[in-house]
Each structure stands twice: as structure tokens, then as C-alpha cells.
Design a protein that fits this description.
transferase; 2 domains; alpha/beta; disordered N terminus; about 10% strand; 10 helices; Spore Coat Polysaccharide Biosynthesis Protein SpsA, Chain A
């Protein structure tokens, strides 16, 4: 006779291993605009380093046949009419379904052989984003202006939002599904990298950096990045995010500056009034009063918007937690990532039979 224990397990029957979950899906996201000279090379490189990866090329209004070459190479090609890397990333995170997202530029400057290390770090440490920090191996790979601008902008963002990155503007990243499906993506251009970093810092996501080789563009491939124009756009994005995500500090600085100016201008007037009982310069006195009122209004705005921002952050956090965490391990010799499973349980032996309830 086989009987059932209080836990519902049939005694006398062997309990086998649990069925394996579905394998993890890794999606390669390749933003491209006029990358006909390099897109096939990039696809071949990542297919070799990540067997079984799903390749998605997002053709951002190219006019050199990039989409056709990618399609011939076996990639899923998505046409994005709105120009700008931010528009591409917004579309990619919305349309592609996967467990792990690997984003890389289509200019063949990033090392495809480093992809397994980035994916493994994400899974082994339970992270939401891993950034491939660029280590240039040749002088032509990383122009001096870009290097200095990257450091300044990274330090500026670290001062305002927290220091977690050495290369905030890298285009080589791995994301968890949680991150991809909770990222709002407001930026439209190259400033998207700044928004990616600030989103992780705001929600206090676990992130990491892995040094990766960075090479020069191959001949026949031209960069779309303008040092001054895109640098100013990134700086503007940092200022906008500072106001939106830390409004109390932003408006407190404005209030403090306004109040300090009011006090400096009012000091001579106060000294004259104490000596003579007269206020000789009424326009200055009115200006001091206006600056003091402006400081009070700025502080009130900061307090109100800080409460609103906290509510928005909580909503983002709940959207983030609504997506199950990615758990698993990846092996280079496997055609896909296999999730970790619990070890097989030993067989349960039958005990003495008990009378069945009437």
C-alpha cells in the first residue's frame, strides 16, 4: 500500500529531479546607422563568443545598405525611423523579449571576446547591469577630447548621483530583464548612456564594471559622435536629471545663492539705517526683498518636488520588482545559458502503513 504523508508526498514512491526550466535567452542589441562596413564583422564576432545569441540589428535610417547586410548575415533587422541612439534603445527594450540584453555599438570597436565575461559576471553576482569599461589599446581608438570629456562628465555625474562608474559613456553593456523592462528611456541621442547610469544609481541597482579592450574604427567606417555638440547635450542631460531626480538639492542651491546675494546687498543698507534711521536706496531694498522671497519660493518648490520625486521613484522601484530576477549560469561551450537547478533529492522510502481516514 502507498500512503500519503502530511506534506502530500506519496510514501513508497521515488521522487525524481525537478524538470529543468527553459534556457536563458541572450539578445544582442546592435544600434546601427550607416555601419555597412562593420555590421557583419560584429555579428560574426558575437556569434562566435556567445553561441546561441539572438542578434537584433536596429537600423537607424541608414542609407548604405546596413539593414540588408545584417539581414543576409541572419540577424533580425528592425527599422527605426527616429534618428538617435536613445530612440533605438527605447525601441529595443520595448520590442525584444529576452532574459539578458547585451548592447554594443555596431562600429566594431568593442571586443566581442569579452562578452562571456560580462554575461557571467551579471549572472554569478546577481547584477542588473555590467558596463564594459574601455581600455584603449591604440592611440587612434580614443581621441584625447573624448577621453577628457568622458572623465569630466563621469565625475560630474558621480558628484551628483553617486560614484559607481569609471566609464559612464561606454556603449558596451549587459542588462538583466528587470533593468530593460523598467527603464523609461527619455533621451533621444548619445546622452542615453548617462540616463542608463543614473537610472541604475537612482534605484540602487547592483552594477559592476569589467575592463574591456577598445580599438579604432576600421577603414571605411566613420564616427557619428561630435565631441562638442554631444558633450554639451550630455552635460544638459546631467543637469536635467539633477533637477528631476534630486530637486531638493537643486532648488536649495538656487535658494541659497539667492539668499546670499540678498544679504550681501542688504548689509550696507542695514548699516546706514542703524546709523541714520533712513533707507537711502529704495530700489536696492526692493531687490533684496525680492531675492529673499525668491529664495523662499525656490526652497518651497524643492520640498514639494522632492515629495513628488519620491513617489515616482517608488513607482519605478515597483515596476522593477514586478519583473522576476534573472538567475542562471553561462558556459562558453554551451549553446545557451542554463539556469541553475536544485540538486536531485534522494528517494523517499515508504514507512509503515497507517490506516486511511474514514
Amino acid at each position: 500500500m502507498v500512503r500519503t504523508t502530511s506534506a502530500g508526498t506519496a510514501q513508497g514512491a521515488r521522487v525524481g529531479p525537478s524538470p529543468l526550466p527553459a534556457p536563458l535567452r541572450i539578445a544582442l542589441l546592435l544600434p546601427c546607422r550607416n555601419e555597412a562596413a562593420t555590421v557583419r564583422r560584429v555579428l560574426d564576432g558575437f556569434r562566435a563568443s556567445l553561441p546561441g545569441v539572438e542578434c537584433h540589428v536596429f537600423d537607424n535610417a541608414s542609407d548604405d545598405g546596413t539593414g540588408a547586410i545584417a539581414r543576409e548575415a541572419g540577424a533580425h533587422v528592425h527599422a527605426v525611423a527616429l534618428r538617435g541612439k536613445g530612440n533605438v534603445i527605447r525601441r529595443a527594450f520595448a520590442d525584444v523579449e529576452a532574459d539578458i540584453y547585451l548592447m554594443v555599438d555596431g562600429d566594431a570597436t568593442y571586443d566581442a571576446d569579452a562578452a562571456p565575461a560580462l554575461v557571467r559576471r551579471l549572472l554569478d553576482d546577481g547584477l542588473d547591469m555590467v558596463v564594459g569599461a574601455r581600455v584603449d589599446s591604440e592611440r587612434a581608438a580614443y581621441r584625447a577630447g573624448h577621453r577628457v570629456g568622458n572623465r569630466l562628465l563621469t565625475r560630474c555625474a558621480a558628484l551628483l548621483f553617486g560614484d559607481s562608474f569609471e566609464d559612464m559613456l561606454s556603449g558596451y553593456r549587459v542588462f538583466s530583464r528587470r533593468y530593460a523592462k523598467s527603464f523609461p528611456a527619455h533621451a533621444s541621442g548619445f546622452e542615453i548612456e548617462t540616463e542608463l547610469a543614473v537610472h541604475a544609481l537612482q534605484l540602487r541597482m547592483p552594477v559592476a564594471e569589467v575592463p574591456t579592450a577598445y580599438g579604432a574604427r576600421p577603414e571605411g567606417s566613420a564616427s557619428k559622435l561630435n565631441t562638442w555638440r554631444d558633450g554639451l547635450r550630455i552635460l544638459g542631460t546631467i543637469a536635467r536629471l539633477f533637477k528631476a531626480e534630486r530637486p531638493l538639492l537643486f532648488f536649495s542651491l538656487f535658494a541659497g545663492a539667492s539668499l546670499l546675494l540678498s544679504v550681501v546687498l542688504a548689509a550696507p543698507l542695514l548699516a546706514t539705517y542703524l546709523q541714520t534711521g533712513l533707507v537711502p536706496r529704495f530700489p536696492t531694498a526692493i531687490l533684496c526683498s525680492a531675492l529673499a522671497l525668491l529664495a523662499a519660493l525656490a526652497l518651497a518648490c524643492g520640498l514639494i518636488l522632492d515629495t513628488v520625486t519620491r513617489g515616482r521613484t517608488e513607482a519605478k522601484r515597483m515596476a522593477y520588482l514586478a519583473v522576476p530576477a534573472t538567475r542562471g549560469s553561462w558556459h562558453r561551450d554551451a549553446s545557451h545559458a542554463a539556469p541553475r537547478t536544485a540538486p536531485d533529492e534522494p528517494p523517499v522510502r515508504a514507512g509503515p502503513a497507517a490506516p486511511a481516514p474514514r
